[in-house]
Amino acid sequence: MSNTQNPPAGWTLSHFKAVCADVGSWTWGTVQGAFNEKASITQIIVDAVIGMIPLVGDATAVRDLIAVVIGLADDEEKRKSTWQWVLLVVLLFALIPVIGGVVKGVGRIIVKVAQEAAHLAGAAKAAHLLAGAKEVIEFLNRIGVKNAEKWLLSLHVNDHLAALTEKFTHLMVTLDKILEKARTKVASLVPSLAKRIDSLRTDFAKVREKGKEMIPLAVKELDQKLREIQTYIRSGGETTSRLALHEVATGERVVTRADERRLVEEGVLPVRNSRGGFSQNPASPAKLAKISKYYKHEPGYPDLMYAVDKETQQYNSVAAFSGKMVNRQLKDGEQIFRFFGPPRATHGVPVEEAWAGGAWWGVGAPPKTAKEWREMAAVLDSFNGDGFFVTSKIVGSKGPKAVVGTVSEQFGSKIPGQYLPGGATQAFFFLDKDIKELLNKVGHDFINGTRPAKLVDPATGLEFTFHKTAWTDANGIWGYVQGPGATAVQTARVGSREQATKKNKEVVIHP
How far is CA 211 from CA 114, 163, 170, 172, 478, in A? Predict the structure, then answer.
């Protein structure tokens, strides 16, 4: 409700106060505070601390629980809303002895942060979640939880499903009994109020029945939001998603929490920064020890440290990756793809033709939209104008020997103002010179309207198929905070390096 002075469910103020006084268990002052749906962090902390005190926990829980339950009873749409049930689950924690009051406070912050983050995207969302993680830790420190980070990382909402279900059932039974008692007192004096109580009890029964379906869903949702916060606490980034990227790129499974912890501590996972992007690997010749954590050349594979770029004095191709880079042969059944297109101008800047043959390829199914391609593949407008792509599938044991890893973020230089976060998987490998030149020729002809037959590389067994994207939003749109113009400035010094090294490269978009 927008006005905390209003009684619930359409009751008049005097009638509701009278019922509260007659029932005796709840005072008007206690229930009144329940309807503040936008409680400040200070109020959340106070509520949680009070909830930790024996015998008072139930009273403070009732204050908020009654508001949520009445909302579910009165509004069928709310009963269908997972978020309404998530809030109820958070409040139910206050009824669990010892741990409940603390989890209630943590849960309220998580719900607030998650709902606000739902309206954000990219770097803004990542930054908000990181701030939320810090807020939770600050809250735990303020109420005296020892080793707050360890405590939070050990919390699993799913472990409490049975207890929460039991508390919910007990709450609904209690509410029904109190309403039944209240009806007995007011039936002869205020028949209309007795009728309203009958209606409310019927609706409460609907809430109780719906809870059998929604409580488990809400617990699952809250647990997922908690995990998002936990990943930022654990490693400053999205550990779960970063592990998935690591496994897809390297083929190495993470089978235990000890393995996960080792990958985080060794810093080999792609790092998600506060911008929401995947940070570039160190690439300075003066920092070979740091580079070796992420990449080591092996005989028979491409050497990404063959030369230092004259302009940037960096190993550009190393900076094109985020996290561990693995030398591995592409496996039987893996898909690869590469985008190409004719020359064009984007925001008045000429963009050269992107060729079908080249060293940078995506691993997996091609992206379905221009937005996915630009943002997760981190293909700047100045790299590639799009329009067409070529796909292939590895057959047998003759797959190319490649350097595989996660795409790093990209900053526009030639066309300033563009920022793309990256995060999908890319492979760098060399095709035989003859097949590369043939791919380039066939791709060029395909652009000009000639539809070639499928092209087969006899050395690797790769069969290449050409496609047209038909996208109309691939250029000059995605990744710009503001449109490029004469006064636009370069957003990061690495822009020119990226342009030189990652031209035409593609990556896979993960679901």
Answer: 22, 14, 12, 10, 42
